[in-house]
Structures are given as C-alpha cells and as structure tokens.
Amino acid sequence: MTTIADVTRVARGLTALSNTARLKLNADLQSMASLCDGTVAEQALYLSTAQELFIQYGIQYGQAAQALALEILDSQGILLVDIPNIGQTFYPNRIITKAIEDVIATYLDKAMDNVVKRGYRETITANSDRWARVPTGSYTCPWCVMLASRGFVYKTQERAMAAWHPYCDCVIWPAKDENKAYVDGYDPDMLYNLYKQGKGIGEKPDGKTALDTSGNDI
How far apart are CA 138 and CA 8, in angstroms? Predict the structure, then answer.
C-alpha cells in the first residue's frame, strides 16, 4: 500500500537533488562574477558560461530526478512507454533572457529548482494516465492546497505541468488505474475544505511569499 511516507521520501529526494544543483550553480556564478571586470566582452562571456552551466547541471540532476520517477512508476506497476529527453524539457535561452531582466543569480536559482524537478514530473506524466498532486513538508500554500484537493483527476501532461511555483515540493503521484488511485494519508476532501476557507497547511516561513517557498523541513 502506498502511504504519504512514500510520497515524502520522493519529495526529500527531489529537494536534495535541487539543493545540490542550485548550490553548485550558485558557487560557480559567484566565482565567475568575482572575475568579471564589467566590460561588455566579460559580461557576454559570463552569460554564455552561465547558460552552459545551467544546461549542464539541469540535465545532470534532472536525469537523477528522472531515475527516481522510473523507480516510482515501477513500484506502482505502471509500464514504461516513454522516457522524456531531459535536455528538451526546458528552454535555457529563454531562461537566460529572463534572468538578465531580473537578478540573474536569484532567477537562475528558482529556474534550476524547477528544471531539476521537471525530470521527475515529466517522466511521471508521460507514462501514467492518472495522477494527483500530493502536498508534502511543513507548509503548503493555498494555491497548492487547491490543486491537491482535486485528487487523482489529472490526465494530461499540460494540465499537470502548468502550475508550479518556485521551490514547490508537491509531488505528482501516479495511479495505474482509477480503482488504485489512493495514497494513505492523502485526503483530498480535507484539502478541499481548506481550499474553500482559503487556507494553506502549516505556517508560512518568515520572509517568504506564498508562491515563493517550499514546505521547509521536509
């Protein structure tokens, strides 16, 4: 039987992969920034190298997240029909362009979290006909509570991938069929009641906006 503890284990694994990728990227960006003399040529080199590093870490840790998804699909008895190409699931040129318009390191940190976790999310959605978004951690924002309250209703990849905020630690959980769409400890009815009240789960960490935080202390 699948339990909420199984889902939490996946959330912890994805968070660990994201943290590692982000720490490595941030360290490299800081090292490069300290050597940049501010000239146009140096700035161009900085952005080009930042993009290369983003792709490198995004693919490396996205593939590790994908491996976790393959493990979960196998544990649920779901036959594998597609393995998404991690390098084609995000658009680094677009990400770098947006990063330039924002604070580069901050934007790329958020983007890296999403890219790594997409390795898991897209592999799950590409291979299962039905899934739910299950909240984890000590805090879940009202937006995620609303999405999680719908239960095992998600059936298309586009709908499942459309609403992820930075550092989101909700976990897509697959079901082989409607009759086996169940996770012990995951209660959509309870979540729906919270949604109707406009409430999240737990206390929002200090200094964070509702759509810019994970469930901290997973």
Answer: 11
Biggest alpha carbon–alpha carbon distance for the chain: 62
pTM: 0.88
Q: What letter represents residue 164's amino acid?
A: W
CB distance 195 to 189 below 8 Å = no
Distance, in Å, from the CA atom of 209 to the CA atom of 136, rounded to the nearest integer, reads 18
* Cβ atoms of 154 and 181 closer than 8 Å: no
Q: d(Cα 189, Cα 16) in Å, to the nearest integer?
A: 30
d(Cα 156, Cα 154) in Å, to the nearest integer?
Answer: 6
Q: Distance (Å, rounded) from C-alpha 138 to C-alpha 49?
A: 36
**Residue 123 corresponds to which tokens in the numbers above?**
């592999």
pLDDT for 147-172, tens place per residue? 999 999 887 665 555 678 889 999 99
Length of the chain (residues) = 218
pLDDT, tens digit, 9 for 90 and up, residues 38-51: 676 777 787 888 88
Backbone angles phi, psi at 186, to 5 degrees: -100, 115
Residues in the chain, pLDDT under 50: 210-211, 215-218
What's the half-sphere exposure (Cβ side, CA atoms, 13 Å) at 91? 5
Name the residue ranges covered by the structural domains of the chain: 4-196
18: part of which helix (H) or strand (E)?
A: helix 4-35
- Contact of 139 with 205, CB cutoff 8 Å: yes
In the beta sheet, which residues pair with residue 172? 133
DSSP state of 77: T
Distance separating alpha carbons of residues 218 and 120, to the nearest angstrom: 17
